[in-house]
Amino acid sequence: MNCHDQDVPDYVDRACKFKRNMVIDYNRSKVIKETDDTDIPYLAANITLFWESQEKSISYKDLDSKPPIKVIYERVITYRFLKYKDDNIVVCDQIKGLKGKVLKGFLRILGKAHVMQYRTLAVKDGPLYVLAGVRKFRWLFGPKTGLTITPDGVTLEGVPEKVKQRLRRKIKIKYEPLKPG
Predict the structure, then answer these.
(1) Nearest Cα to 112, choosing from 75, 142, 146, 157?
(2) From residue 106, how far is each of 62, 71, 109, 137 by CA, in Å?
(3) Could you give the angle at the alpha carbon of 58 between the alpha carbons of 56 and 59, nearest 5°?
(4) What is the rounded distance in angstroms from the CA atom of residue 104 to the CA atom of residue 120?
(5) C-alpha distances in Å from residue 14, one per residue of 7, 10, 72, 102, 107
(6) First-last CA distance in the chain
(7) Under-50 pLDDT residues of the chain
(8) The pLDDT of residue 139
(9) Closest by alpha carbon to 98, among 120, 116, 80?
(10) What DSSP state is assigned to residue 108?
(11) How far is residue 178's CA from residue 155's CA, in Å, rounded to a whole number?
(12) pTM for this structure?
């Protein structure tokens, strides 16, 4: 992909500006402790994102999303990455360090929410379907939000029911303790 300075998405520009680093640990024995024989991911990894800045967090406003949101990255972000070959689902699980806040509409009264899990299903030459789970406080989990991202980049609220059922598949994995970095 060729990008000119003015074409670079804000999240890419921020990663470059703050010198974000990424550590990917593909050692399955450090990711998965135990799994059901029917729930074996094709790929499993522990991911750590971090940057050298002394700032505790950075943020930017994504005014193109529907609804517009403020994305907040803590200095260290960790999560589990799972890829299922049979149904092409990618799961980012046990996410720590990624928050968001709705800027317009009714949901803005909720303030910051922590992203806990993110699931995607890509369709060849078609849309990308997303199901994200958030937590407001330690005890309040919000509904899983479904989004459809068209091939030309337009974000639409919701996903078809058949796709939603696939994205909500049970994950029967016990993870090893995560050691960032």
Answers:
(1) 142
(2) 17, 18, 6, 18
(3) 145
(4) 25
(5) 13, 6, 11, 20, 26
(6) 29
(7) 1, 139
(8) 47
(9) 116
(10) G
(11) 32
(12) 0.78
